[in-house]
């Protein structure tokens, strides 16, 4: 089991958030930003909304991979000189995003898919010409060394665990009106054919304890709870332990945790993966089609990170 000290390391306190606004329009051959007036004539955009909201991006937990990527973006894009990322919690970010959309206000957040936010609101990613956030990612399953020998049944199920982004978003969205445990249970009941492939030929056990380590994202709460229900149906006593990403890799590498369905690869958690590479077993992809980046409501007239203006 993870020590209480490590659990405390993984807990991130929420801090206040500021909103970020960025104006973006069309661009002519000279490179100046333009938009069209009511007569269809082009006019140069003159309002730098970023200045009004202190050039702040609404982020999530300080230890999250996307938070590190956003810090990297602030360094890589010259036009983001003077911008800052307000690091808080996922819940706080979603609250700020929802409030902004309710009032049709501009906001830029660090976002990712799969996530129910894309099912709930009309959102879009800002283009990332420098590819700081990387291409489409996958979510991997990792296990401590020796798990295959100690718990071959659980190892087999975790190795076979694979689902689609739509499956994960279904659980996440349903959990908003109930709980992740209830949403996961409903998904398992509705997808018996998929679950049957995971457990085919696997013998049941009698109360063997197993600990799954996850990051505090709704995506990972969804996969971990589905895996928990499937493993419990096979006779396992399952503990779910949410921690910071760096602690997650360390826990599996040292054997204090048994497995994790949470690593986003190759960019989001790539640095943590490299740090502990060779000290855990990589079981491969459990979901393909993950993505991270800067996200805005579709009503915002901006398309690329390069459309933002540097702080004055």
From TrEMBL:
Keywords: Signal. It comes from Radiobacillus deserti. One of its GO terms (molecular function) is transmembrane transporter activity. The lineage of its organism: Bacteria, Bacillati, Bacillota, Bacilli, Bacillales. Residues 1-23 form the signal peptide. It holds the Pfam family OpuAC. Residues 25-46 are annotated as: Disordered. InterPro entries: ABC_Gly_betaine_transp_sub-bd. Residues 30-45 have a biased composition (Basic and acidic residues). Coiled coil: none annotated. This is Glycine/betaine ABC transporter. Residues 46-189, 209-309 form the ABC-type glycine betaine transport system substrate-binding domain. GO terms for cellular component: ATP-binding cassette (ABC) transporter complex.
């Amino acid at each position: 089991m993870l020590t209480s000290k490590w659990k405390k390391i993984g807990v991130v306190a929420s801090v206040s958030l500021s909103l970020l606004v960025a104006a973006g329009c069309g661009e002519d051959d000279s490179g100046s930003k333009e938009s069209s007036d009511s007569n269809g004539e082009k006019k140069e955009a003159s309002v730098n909304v970023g200045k009004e909201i202190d050039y702040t991006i609404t982020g999530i937990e300080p230890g999250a991979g996307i938070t590190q990527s956003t810090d990297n973006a602030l360094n890589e894009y010259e036009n983001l000189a003077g911008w800052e990322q307000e690091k808080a919690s996922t819940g706080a970010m979603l609250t700020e995003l929802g409030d902004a959309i309710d009032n049709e206000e501009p906001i830029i957040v660090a976002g990712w898919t799969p996530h129910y936010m894309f099912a709930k609101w009309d959102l879009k990613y800002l283009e990332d010409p420098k590819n700081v956030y990387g291409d489409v990612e996958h979510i991997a399953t990792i296990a401590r060394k020796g798990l295959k020998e100690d718990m071959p049944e659980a190892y087999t199920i975790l190795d076979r665990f694979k689902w689609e982004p739509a499956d994960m978003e279904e659980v996440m969205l349903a959990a908003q009106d109930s709980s992740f445990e209830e949403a996961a249970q409903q998904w398992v009941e509705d997808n018996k054919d998929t679950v049957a492939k995971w457990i085919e030929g696997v013998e049941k056990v009698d109360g063997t304890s197993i600990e799954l380590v996850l990051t505090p994202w709704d995506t990972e709460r969804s996969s971990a709870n589905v895996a928990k229900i499937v493993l419990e149906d096979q006779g396992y006593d399952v503990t779910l332990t949410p921690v910071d990403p760096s602690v997650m890799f360390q826990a599996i590498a040292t054997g204090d945790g048994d497995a994790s369905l949470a690593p986003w690869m190759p960019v989001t958690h790539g640095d943590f993966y490299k740090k502990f590479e060779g000290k855990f077993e990589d079981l491969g992809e459990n979901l393909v089609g993950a993505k991270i980046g800067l996200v805005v409501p579709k009503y915002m007239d901006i398309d690329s990170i390069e459309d933002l203006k540097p702080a004055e």
